[in-house]
Amino acid sequence: MGERTEYLPVTIDKSHIITIGERLYEQSIELVRELVNNAYDADATRVDVTIAPEEITVADNGEGMDLEGLKQYFNVGSDLKLQNPVSPKFGRDRIGQFGIGKFASLAAAAAFEITTQKGDFAAKVIFDRDRWMAQGSSWSLPLRILVPDPKRGDGTTVRLLGLKRSFKPEHVTEKIAEGVPIRAKDFSVYVNSYRVTPKTYSGNRIPVFEGTKYGVVHGEIVILPAYRASKDDMGIEIKVKGVTVCRDLFDMASWGKAATRIRGEVNADFLLLTSDRSGFIEDSPEYAAFSKAMEETMAKVKQAYNRLASARENRRVSRALKEALERVHRALLLNPEFSPFGVVPFADPEKEGVGESGVETPAPGEGEKEIKIEDVDADSETEAAEEGSSLETEERPQSGERKKSPSLRVATPNAVVRRLKFGEAGVTCCLDHLGEEGPECMTEGTIIYINRDHPLYKRESKKKEAHILNIARLITQEISLMKNPEHPRDAYNRQSKLLRDAFEGND
Q1: Residue 467 or residue 242, greater confidence
Q2: DSSP 3-state assignment of 368?
Q3: How many Å apart are CA 187 and CA 91, to the nearest integer?
Q4: Of 34, 295, 381, 382, which has the highest C-beta tally within 10 A?
């Protein structure tokens, strides 16, 4: 026998097509999102989704389909949208790609019905799964030509009939808000007559705008207030053509609790999607460029978060320091002999003057002054000296000379500084980050440094009462050592008395 060529038919089993459709989406609820996105691609300005116990209806006022459009609609794997990626009327970037989403509908419904109208053409198609499977090798569907309805106008309505599972309107709304470009101009979606609005977050907003050779990465990231922190929906939504593909933490897992306060979305339309549109082709140069852009973005977010966290923590520390100093001041009034600067002078409430004692703040208005803690700008206290210069000790001014004050060195810009005044003298308290290996506290001149990184300080700062007590303990310790430091036992006794009097009667 001689050689000859024969031909084998290439066939696709119907059940395989349906299986692919059923497995296309992780959740069957996403098929509703797919139908809404089809309406967006068809230049619809309004889509109405109606959720009922046994059926779902998705109606749009898009361009509709004529006979050729219907044939194309049921062309499995059609690349029409890839060949025409922009819609004709509004110039929208079309979302759909593979034309197999309609088969996903059969994962949740026994049949779907399409009614469409375009100009003078109107028709209805019913895709019943059981009947279609019973037809064997036939792939045709019954098409019913209708009389066009001028009142209806162009558009398409899809009904999912014989639902196999229930769909809650709120869940459908959430999925649409996440997976449909509802921020687009001239486009709105309603679920059971309620408009779907974009998800919004309150907090500190950080705009994202990073250029790459493939396109722009843009969006917004929000740092939520601490009381809104949550593990629910953690991460940043990555959107392509307005549709969320997935969420990503972008290495925020190493941030600890900080990650629970970060939300937002970024758009990168140039990213290549996997066939199920649940992820990206990560070994592509486009994804590498995106990753680099997001690395730079998240570094900015981390810096912004650290600034916010520091400011919030500083307010808490400042309040604790203020109360501790007020209590120490009260204790010194009760024990004036313990003051290292001599007898603590009392201020005349009617006539406050330079020799008053207390903890003062800058006057809120000219001629007004109240005795309380003084906030000190660390920068204004810092000498313009080279790093490592020693502190000046306080000296009595000679005739015509101005008294020199000790210079305050601050290790970090997050130092909290307040002053306790004893007549014309006093001490400055600086709570700063001096490192875990640094001293718990120290005094240079009349400046008391308290180390916020010390393990004991960090432990005691977790509760308000313990925090105030610990700060007062360290301040009274240093003040007690300023007087007769050669007798440590006397200093210890002075500290004990001051600390007891500072908190006597405290609830």
Answers
A1: 467
A2: coil
A3: 13
A4: 34
CB atoms within 10 A of CB 503: 15
Find where tokens 């907090």 sit.
203
Assign a CATH topology to domain 14-195.
Heat Shock Protein 90 (3.30.565)
> What's the rounded Cα separation, in Å, for the pair 491 and 504?
20
- Residue 114 pLDDT > 90, yes or no? yes
pLDDT digits (tens, 9 = 90+) for 380-436: 333 322 233 222 323 333 444 444 455 677 767 788 999 888 767 788 999 998 888
Separation between Cα atoms, residue 104 and residue 124, nearest integer Å? 20
Query: Using CA atoms, how far apart are residues 123 and 115, in angstroms rounded to an integer?
Result: 6
pTM of the shown model: 0.63
Rounded CA-CA distance 328/332 in Å is 6
pLDDT at 108: 77
266-286: average pLDDT: 88
How many whole angstroms separate alpha carbon 149 and alpha carbon 165?
A: 33
Cα(26)–Cα(277) distance, rounded to whole angstroms?
A: 10
Distance from C-alpha of 479 to C-alpha of 485, rounded to nearest angstrom: 10
Separation between Cα atoms, residue 239 and residue 95, nearest integer Å: 11
For the chain, residues classed under CATH 3.30.565.10 are: 14-195
Report how far residue 500's alpha carbon sits from residue 266's, in angstroms, rounded to the nearest whole number.
57
Q: How many CA atoms lie within 13 A of 351 on its CB side?
A: 0
Most confident of 37-46, 362-371, 397-406: 37-46
What does the CA dihedral 291, 292, 294, 296 come to, rounded to 10 degrees?
A: 160
User: Token digits for 334?
Assistant: 């009760």
Residue 275: CA atoms inside 13 Å, Cβ hemisphere, count? 9
Alpha helices, DSSP H, located in 76-168: 80-83, 101-104, 129-134
C-beta neighbour count of 367 within 10 angstroms: 5
